[in-house]
Specification:
mainly alpha; Homeodomain-like_sf; Tetracycline Repressor, domain 2; single chain; DNA binding; 2 domains; repressor
Length: 191
C-alpha cells in the first residue's frame, strides 16, 4: 500500500518529534530505531523509507529541533530567566538539545555536529541581535555577551541536572541568572 506524499511528510514529522524527545531524555545510544518508530506510532520496518540510517536520523533530528527554537526572544536576561528555571531543568525531553546532547554530539557524525554547530550559530546571532537598535552597544559587545551568556546558561543547566542535591541545583540556576543580570547591567552602564 502506497502512502501519499502528505502522509509521508506527516509520518516524517512524527518520527523527528519522537526522536527529538527520546534522544534528549535518554541519549543517542540508549534509543533504538525501534524505540523511535514505536513512539511515533509507526512500524519499525518502515524506518528506512524515511531515513538511510540512525546516524542520518540523529543529524536530521538535531536540524529539526534547532529549527524550532525561540526565534523571537532576543533579550538575553529575559531568555535566561526562562532557560534557567526549574521547569526547564526538569524537562530534559522537551528542553534544550545543546544541554541534553552537546557532549554526546561531539562523538557523532560530521552531519550531526554540523547541525549542532548551526544551532549554536543561530542562537548566538539571535541573542546578539538585542543590541542592534542601540548605537552605543556595538556588534562585538553584543556577540561577546551572547556567547558568554549562552555558555553560562548551558553549563548551568548541565550542572543543575547532574547534581542530586535540589538546593544546590536551584542555587546553580539562580546564581547563574544573577551573574548574567549583573553582566548585562555592567555592559549597559559602560556606554
Amino acid at each position: 500500500m502506497r502512502v501519499s506524499r502528505e502522509q509521508v511528510a506527516i509520518n516524517r514529522q512524527k518520527i523527528l518529534e519522537a526522536a527529538s524527545r527520546l534522544f534528549r531524555e535518554h541519549g543517542y545510544d540508549a534509543v533504538t530505531v525501534a524505540d523511535v518508530m514505536s513512539a511515533a506510532g509507526l512500524t519499525h520496518g518502515g524506518f528506512y523509507g524515511y531515513f538511510k540510517s540512525k546516524d542520518e536520523l540523529i543529524a536530521q533530528t538535531l536540524a529539526h529541533v534547532f529549527g524550532q527554537g525561540d526565534a523571537g526572544e532576543t533579550d538575553l536576561v529575559r531568555y535566561a530567566a526562562r532557560y534557567l528555571s526549574s521547569e526547564h531543568r526538569d524537562n530534559i525531553a522537551g528542553g534544550c538539545p545543546t544541554a541534553a546532547l552537546g557532549a554526546e554530539t561531539v562523538r557523532q557524525t560530521p552531519e550531526a555536529r554540523a547541525a549542532m554547530a548551526a544551532g549554536l550559530r543561530r542562537q548566538i546571532e539571535r541573542l546578539s541581535a538585542r543590541g542592534s537598535g542601540d548605537a552605543a552597544y556595538d556588534a562585538a559587545q553584543a556577540r561577546r555577551a551572547a556567547i558568554g551568556g549562552w555558555s553560562a546558561m548551558v553549563g548551568a543547566v548541565i550542572l543543575a541536572r547532574l547534581v542530586d542535591d535540589p538546593v544546590l541545583s536551584d542555587e546553580v540556576l539562580n546564581e547563574t541568572l544573577a551573574w548574567i543580570e549583573h553582566q548585562d547591567a555592567d555592559t549597559s552602564t559602560s556606554h
